[in-house]
Amino acid sequence: MKILLTGVTGYIGKRLLIQLLEEGHHVVCSVRDKNRFGLKLFKEKIEQIEVIENDFLDDKTLDTIPKDIEAAYYLIHSMSSSDGDFKEKEKLSAENFKKALEKTQAKQVVFLTGIINEKKLSKHLESRKNVEEALESSVYALTSLRAGIIVGSGSASFEIIRDLAEKLPLMVAPKWVNTKCQPIAIRNVMQFLVGVLGKEFTYKQHYDIAGTDVLTYKEMLLTYAKIRGLKRSIYIVPLMTPKFSSYWLYFVTSTSYFLAKNLVDSMKIDVVASKNDLAERLGIQLFSYKEAITLAFDKIKQNDVLSSWYDSFSNNFHTRQVWQYLEVPDEGCYKDIRELKIEDEKATLDRIFSIGGKTGWYYADFLWRIRGFLDKLFGGVGLRRGRRNMTDLDAGDSVDFWRVLYADKEKGRLLLFAEMKLPGEAWLEFKVKNGVLRQEATFRPLGISGRLYWYSVLPFHGLIFNGMLKKLVGK
């Protein structure tokens, strides 16, 4: 079957692409920029993939969608967006998608959304409901799968629970930790997404999908801690405001403030699935919450996390069009360039492509942590994001407060772009060629503040970058 897949660079989309390829489908991957779509994971199935560029907020870019597609997945969302009008943008994106799909041969659209079982919804869930209504069509059949908390290695919900339970022996939590939810394992989500494809009994239907357990967020945290062998206590403070709760999540976990804000808004509402027989009809064995946690850690231990919620970029990142800087600019930039001869090229490349995350930055890690804390303090991403895989990098991956623009071990080049709060733009590049490692830090300042920033951190460059370079070559 020829399938259009949107949101392919996100947490769900990347995993779904792998499943669809395994099923033998031809997948048309819709992305906003081809440069950010890494094909490394899919090289054995490359003949089944077609990549097109679209921005569903701009209907002029949608003519590239093939007319002969038979089905499509709509996995576009803006939950972590800082835009105040994200509801309007989500609706516009859905309307443009619908108009484009109605010009094709598609018989079915599968939409993954959130469980809606209360009259008063959060802004996020209300937006998801509006998107679902906007996607309904008389030309194709819409199948909506409504999920609550998704538990899996790399999922936002799992990583937040993990951060809280691992870091805080004693938690003073807001009253929303007593809200009920029904989590679902990412493996079950994949089974539902693939399972409904082409099934006519699911056409023009919506289904709540969930695991076997109804739990409060407090119970989820304590269950996680028990599985990990951690003793944890949670005390509820009823007067903690939503804004304070958002900042609490933002500073304690690796989430962005805007995602934390939307999560807190949604967490005030019970999210329990309505019963249906979809799992039975598709032959899906549902996992419990404990089983979902165990499966997630199996992937983490094997260093086999296929995707992370960090894979999704903000609209601001796309607007800045950083992908045009795969070749680092020279004009108007300050540079710190250092080179050293290499004795063992393979070992050096292994170190370079393992940088960040748990491995650290090889030298003066405490200074990197201080910089991460300051970034978090001023509303940045901070240093807690880590990385999806401990030894492998691909374009689009996050590495602490950097984003990978280019990664090719065979060609000996890794290029990182800074996502931290800066009065300008910054790149960090590693090149291995002719037995020499070239390490190049580039900063393009914005106004006087940018120039003052560069000179204020310049004394640390000699210490950090020189030490890091020596460690990378094994000295």
Structure description:
The protein is an alpha/beta fold and 475 residues long. The protein is 35% helix and 21% strand. The chain contains 14 helices and 19 strands. Strands 3-2-1-4-5-6-11 form a 7-stranded parallel β-sheet, with helices on both faces. It has a 6-stranded antiparallel β-sheet with strand order 14-19-18-17-16-15. The radius of gyration is 23 Å and the shape is globular. The N and C termini lie far apart (54 Å). The relative contact order is 0.11.
Give the topology, please.
Blueprint: E1 2-5, H1 11-22, E2 26-31, E3 49-53, E4 71-74, H2 86-101, E5 108-114, H3 123-135, E6 141-147, E7 150-151, H4 156-167, E8 170-174, E9 180-181, E10 184-185, H5 186-195, E11 205-209, E12 215-216, H6 217-227, E13 233-237, H7 242-252, H8 257-267, H9 278-282, H10 289-301, H11 315-319, E14 334-341, H12 345-352, H13 365-377, E15 398-399, E16 402-408, E17 413-418, E18 424-433, E19 436-445, H14 447-472
Structure summary:
With 475 residues, the protein is of the alpha/beta class.
Protein traits:
single chain, 475 residues, alpha/beta, seven-stranded parallel sheet, six-stranded antiparallel sheet, globular
